[in-house]
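hey can u run this one w/ magnesium ion bound, need the structure tokens asap thx
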Amino acid sequence: MARIDLSDLAHAYRADPKTPADYALKKLDLSWRDGGAYALLGPSGCGKTTLLNIISGLVHPSHGRVLFDGKDVTNLPTERRNIAQVFQFPVIYDTMTVAENLAFPLKNRGVDRATIDKRVAAIGEMLELTPLLNRNASGLTADLKQKISLGRGLVREDVAAILFDEPLTVIDPHLKWQLRTQLKRLHTQSRATMIYVTHDQTEALTFADTVVVMYDGEIVQIGPPQALFDQPEHTFVGYFIGSPGMNVLPAAVDGANALVEGTTVALGARYAALPKTARIEIGVRPEHVRLSTKGEGVPVEIVRIDDIGRLKVAKLSLAGRPLAAVLPEESTLEGSGVRAVFDPGRVHVYADGRRVAGEAA
Ligand code: ADP
Ligand code: MG
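ok here u go:
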């Protein structure tokens, strides 16, 4: 088990990077706590696999260093980093049985037969592969093959870290839920540092203690799931996390008020000097928007109301801009004169996408 530090790290796949856009991974400093359960969350192409492969040694960073427990491993090959990695698509040996595939990482390291048998049986049990252990791995379905890959990543008990790169992509939805729960439990038992890459917020939020959100080659927020919900540091985080995501509206902010499409909205804090040239927006989660017919708030039109079980989601239009509100199930609203009221303490202010901290109003 290890603490992993990335120091002054950056990576460009092209040989002569000039502008920030040439970097798949822009400059970053980041520490992964020993024994932490992390999710690395972001849309396709934002640099997640690049970051993971730099940690495992499959990619050599163009700048900066990788440290395991303070020791510089930047130039060490993958085999010498004591890491297990599970890839998005199955990597298995077709000529071996399922059991031999699972045993491979242990056999490679000269682990004794009895320990190997015990671990293979335990991992086989956990992944429901027991009836298949003596079968040849060729000819199995993609999701069974991926379970074997997952098992190979989990079989060693002595790894510094286990890296998962969207490992459940080819797994069917029911099994996905089950495996996710098992991975979480496994982390609690083993205390290995685990980094789980995904573009799926549900996967990230159920697995991780700490979520690292990436966007366009940058880390935009690191925090526990609740913090990403309560205080998105970037409009992208607000939009990406939550369902529906945070409402983001262009605004002009003056002190403790924002002017949104011609209507003044109260803010929970005072904003002194926002950068003059910046693009200013406010963000408010649908959960913190309510509807009123008492003349308060901003005028909206109701586009649609969806029943999502215990709640309703209202899709609104604010001067042509989409706005969502989450309403209690029993709410009934129709007709004209409907306005949306934002909970002032829950409205955030953003300058060029980044959250600005306000002062007590
Ligand atoms: P993610 O895993 O988040 O989808 P990647 O790390 O795979 O993102 O990719 C980040 C960026 O780097 C993308 O623009 C991708 O096209 C580019 N990229 C990834 N791998 C290579 C490569 N081997 N050579 C050149 N460009 C690459
Ligand atoms: Mg990837």
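Residues 91 and 296 are 59 Å apart (CA to CA). anyway lmk if its weird
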